[in-house]
Amino acid sequence: MEITIIAETQGDNLHPVTSQLVGAATSLGASPTVLCAGGAGADAAAGIAGVGKVLSVVGDCFSTFDGGAWAAAFDAAAGTGIIIGAASAQGRDVVARIAARRSIPVVQDVVAISQGLTMTHPIYSGKAMQEVTVGGDCAVTLRSNTFPPAGDGGSAESATVQQSGDVKIAVQEAIAKASARLDVSDADIIISGGRGMGSPDNFEHLYALSDKLGAAVGASRAAVDTWDEIPHSMQVGQTGKTVNPSLYIAVGISGAIQHLAGMRTSKYIVAINKDPEAPIFKVADYGIVSTWEEALPILGDEIAKIL
Amino acid sequence: MVYEALDFYDLDSQLTDEEIMVRDMVRGWVDAEVLPKIEKACSEGVFPDEWRVALGEMGVLGAPLEGYGCPGLSYVAYGVICRELERGDSGLRSFASVQGSLAMYPIWDFGSEEQKQKYLPGMASGDLIGCFGLTEPDYGSNPGDMITKAEDKGDHFLLNGAKMWITNGTISDLAVVWAKLDGVIRGFIVETGDEGYSAPEMTGKYSLKASVTSELVFQDCKIPKDRILPGVKGLKGPFSCLNNARFGISWGALGAAQACFSSAKEYSLSRIQFDHPIASYQLVQNKLAWMLREITKGQLLAFELGRKKDNGSWIPEHISLAKMNNVDIALEIAREARDIHGANGILDEYCIMRHMANLESVKTYEGTHDIHNLILGRHITGIQSFTRSL
Amino acid sequence: MVEIAVLLKQVPDTNAKIVVVNGRVDESAIASWVTSPYDEYAFEAALQHTEAAGGSITAITLGPARADKVLKDAAALGVTKLVRIWQDDWQDLDSNQVQSALANAVTAAGADLVYCGKQSADRNQGSTGPGIAEILGAACITEVSESDSAGSYLRPTASGSERVTVSSPAVVTFTKTQNELRRPNVRGIMMAKRAQIEVVGGDVSASQVNFNGHSSPAQKPPGKTYEGSDSVPEVVGLLRDEAKVL
Predict the structure, then answer these.
(1) How far is Cα B230 from Cα A267, in angstroms, rounded to an integer?
(2) CB pairs under 8 A between A and B
(3) Does the domain spanning B11-124 belong to CATH 3.60.120.10?
(4) Which residue of A86, A133, B217, B323 is 20 to 30 Å from B369, comparing CA positions?
């Protein structure tokens, strides 16, 4: 089976998810060719175990991201068979366009793949899974941190091909990450503090952690009512906002029923509270009985390690 | 928390596409703009002016009236609007009821062409607020004996008297006032700023706190001759307004009841006592089943009454039955819901206590519960029991 | 003047419970169907764009008769050109079929720009925008969070965001924007009552994808409580490997 992987890059470097794409490809018995946009990360890609070949696709188009131009270049450089990319914003864009160029189907955000080619991907934001089989050629993106990465120690041959496409998108202005706080209604990860934080100043620790995670900071009604510095817009619960993030981290929140009403449908709940009897532990998937002063610094360090 | 409207017999599937769009429009607005602000409005005792603007922009004021900038919707659609507004708060629905059924309707039905053109477009758009002056300090259920009188002074009318319990009074631009002219009840339009007219706000309410309630005082109030409603004489005038308002209430009360039911259901499923959700206990299920039963019966009444209003086959007694029953069960449902919520039921975290307190007013205004029973009693027996010689 | 085709997909209310019965999501259990939320942001951007620059909008959906509702909702906000694509096997169309059916409708509408959500709230794929762009030979800007009538768009980058421009024809897929979604009013709803919906066939080739079935996601393990802050590294590991939320 011929598999071509579109390497996921981060600036000039290879994104670690690329090893996972290779791992999935080798589990299908392939020794994949890895295409690197503008040659970015080509050396690192050659070092991934199981890679058959690394192709640096070099062309003018790679200075700006334009999915159409990139897809044209990759399409010309890639063989037939299966195209695999990462289910990132850029990965989905490029892989969908390669599929459309070739009139082959595309299946995005795959979390399980087996010979045949049978694939499973979440639908309805993960409330159900869909399984499909594609007999012929197809294009696929894989969800990150789902497939075991291939190891190091590969020594694939590398080559360079000149391919480009018409760039139709012009960048006018690059804008650094805004420091504006995410609203709890929009966030996929929320860190909320309660009166157990002791003072509104201590919410700074939650903000620091939220910056690392791209999370929003919320609060219990008790915190909002007690401290003027914590605005009602942060309140999660019956009379605040109802939230439904993938991850909700409750810090120093006991878990009054009014608070639970606003966050109990979160996909995963982590609770940090020093009182082992706090009702928040009843709804938590992972409860940590500890003061926030002890737990938060370690949480910050551990998260920094894996992101 | 997401509002799941109880509709056990799927009656909303009988709505037209347009009626469903109107429902979703109002429901979405209540979710986004009313519920997050209602508790503050109640604690401050104000009707937020932005709600007046929004109701006008949505175009739901005077819903069933046609022409003069009015929406021309069905009575069923008007009922649905009331239901969705009162799911937010009875005070909000009261604002819309008074504006549409009690102030716009009499001008639309009994006003002169000039009056209609002068007032109705602005009232439909929410730019002009109206109120309705019938009840007096000493005459509530018995409006026929009202004291407020009008005198024809040749080039103007002179009004003297006082009205009480007037929703929207203080914030109104105009009042439709019922007064006796030569012993006959007639309707007059009084504008804010008319000489001798004032509308002080009544304070200290425990109910309908997000609604403005006022007195209307007429002290040698002088109004031009063209402010009399030419098209009606006698109690028929105010009573036809009240029929429309009561129709809206019969739907609106269901909105309050559905809000309480929805909260009670959600709460009982998440409240754990003795290791299990209280929703798993028979006594709680019995309460929830009773609520569902009464709401469903009330919905059947309201829908059928809506169809009768639309096809003209209704009689006032039909409206009395629906108003009386639906407010009655809504109030009982609020009380049962408070019980299910336990102590939490008294908090402003939940809508329960607010709806309960509101519904106490709704039970009394626009024809008290008992008066509607007497209306039905008269219908059944042919004998009126309102008054007698003692 | 700009002609914009807006792609609106009808999906179950995002708060709806999704139940799988006999290997298929039970649609009869879905009480409320809505316009896919990201599509609504795309639509609002299109409304603002045509208001500022002049021109008109064609609203296009693909689905059964109930999907007329999303077009009626668009009509209530002033859109007069409404197209619903109908295929008997619309539920099992593969990505190529969906894209070519929509691309045909876009071409028929004579649109310079296509606005749609970055992905639908049901299939969550995100293939439609880029795929249509490829078929139309157009550029595609994805995950746009801000747009203006001068044709500049804000899209995310690894280090923040960038403002880009593009020449038409182009496809723009939207994520949530700062725009407040407008509500219809009764006048609009009465206009929608009279709106005509053009129903067209998809006219697409055979599917290359076999649909095997739906299933419920794996159950979460029961909650666990750990003593002391020493357990934090273990919990973070579980968040990444078991919960897969980091």
Answers:
(1) 65
(2) 25
(3) no
(4) B217
